[in-house]
Amino acid sequence: MGVLSLVAAAAVVIAVVVMEVDLVWMAVALLHVAALSGVAFAWLRAHEAAKTAERAASDLRFLAKRLIRLEQEMRSPGTGASPAIRTTMAEVTGTVGLLGGVVRELARNVAAQNRDVADLRSTLTSSAQPAESEKPALKIVPEARPVPVAVPEKAQPEPSLLPRKEAEDEIKRMRLVTQAFEAGGIELHLQPVVALPQRRVRFYEALARLRLSDDTLLTPAEFLPVLERLGRMPEFDRKVLARAVAVAKHLLARGSEAIVGVNLSPFSVKQPGFLASVVRLLDASPEVLGKIVLELPQSAWRDLDTGRKDALAVLRDRGVPLSLDRAEDLAFDARALADLGVRFMKLPADLMITAAEREGASASEWSVRDLATILRREGIRLVAERVEREETVPVLVDLGVPLAQGFVFAAPRAVRSEVLGAKEATDGKPALRRAG
Q1: Residue 151 falls within a domain, yes or no?
Q2: Mean pLDDT across the chain, nearest whole number?
Q3: 244-251 average pLDDT score
Q4: Are residues 111 and 231 in the same domain?
Q5: Which has more confidence, 424 or 389?
Q6: 122: closest CA among 147, 92, 141, 97?
Q7: Residues 8 and 125 placed together within one structural domain of the fold
Q8: What whole-number distance in Å separates Cα of residue 7 and Cα of residue 21?
């Protein structure tokens, strides 16, 4: 019986040892599987980076062909700075921007691949070195770990590059917009601003549209970003302002007291010399001084430096009224804006109505119902914009809003070509179009 007990005990010990050895080998096998999986993932990332590099090479060849064509055109006798060359330059500029995205994506993929490989090596090393109390009979010796590539942790990922088809569509859109701009496809549409409650027209806001060669009419949201990317917003704003001056002259000739508001892009306002060119353009037509309102968004008024304030002061001193447009909140200093030359403040109707409804829940320094009075004391007239529903009108009247603008009163209408002058009349456009 004693012998049998010893044999049984020995069998148990042997079984435990074998089990521990099996567990160790199982752990080793799992580590090998993890290593193979990590290597496969790293290979996939490397393959993706290689594909991106191939796309970059293809786009570089595409750019080289365009540059060669541009050089040939520039060498042609008598070519000069033709619209065709400027259009080609726009295409090249757009392509360069897209290739920059390709390079950034390639760099991100390579950095991610290096980081993944370094993490994999680190994981294998830490997994292969158990604690002293848990060391198995078989010791796994890791290989020397290479130094990982440093990747800034705070770097924010940039937007993914557009697929090639979308990139080609974007280049095509840039070309169409540039061609329409060069061909004089800018149209001016006017939307009236009316006095409440009589709804009598007091002035007009000039809204630009761009008509493509296939007669498609683009809204500002569809073509302004393209012009900004190409750096042509100052030229666009000057063209629109020149057309607004022609409209103001037409209104004066008819004996109308209505004035014309023109939006200026924050991009243009920040360009050196732009506001000075606006001063020169208006000085060339002194009869319209006071009849053209220059509108800047609320964000631009909050971002004025000393140089732009001085340039706006020149316009203010010449009698050019200024306006705050595209407001996002009611946080403003009426006195400071008046000192800068602001004579109109355009606030979304829904913004004012919502603020008035919330006044009962919290105290404030002033009431929305007193807003028009506060502004009037500083020489600023309040305009409610984006009035789209008829039921909004009596609420605005109750709030004391003196002026309003929106589709409830009238939709924007295209200016007749003869109003803009003989040059515009040769474009073959109909006398009047409803805004698209």
Answers
A1: no
A2: 75
A3: 95
A4: no
A5: 389
A6: 147
A7: yes
A8: 21
pLDDT (0 to 100) of residue 435: 37
Burial (0-12, 13-18, 19+ Cβ within 10 Å), 92: middle
Task: Write out pLDDT tens, residues 312-367.
Answer: 999 999 999 999 999 988 888 999 999 999 999 999 999 999 988 886 545 455 67
Interval 218-242 mean pLDDT: 94
**Which residue is associated with the tokens 């680190």?**
122
- Say if residue 241 is in the same domain as residue 324: yes
Residues 127 and 194 occupy one common structural domain: no
- Which residues, 6 or more positions from 169, have their beta carbon under 8 angstroms from its beta carbon? none
Residues 6+ away with beta carbon under 8 Å from 244: 188, 206, 260, 262, 292
CA distance 18 to 41: 35
The string of DSSP letters for 123-157 reads HHHHHTS--GGG--SSPP-PPPPPPPPP--TTPPP
Own/partner long-range contacts of 111-114 (Cβ < 8 Å, ≥24 apart): 111/149, 111/151, 112/45, 113/42, 113/45, 113/46, 113/49, 114/148, 114/149, 114/151
Report d(CA 247, CA 261) in Å as an integer: 11
What pLDDT is attached to residue 228? 92
48 — phi, psi (to 5°)?
Answer: -65, -40
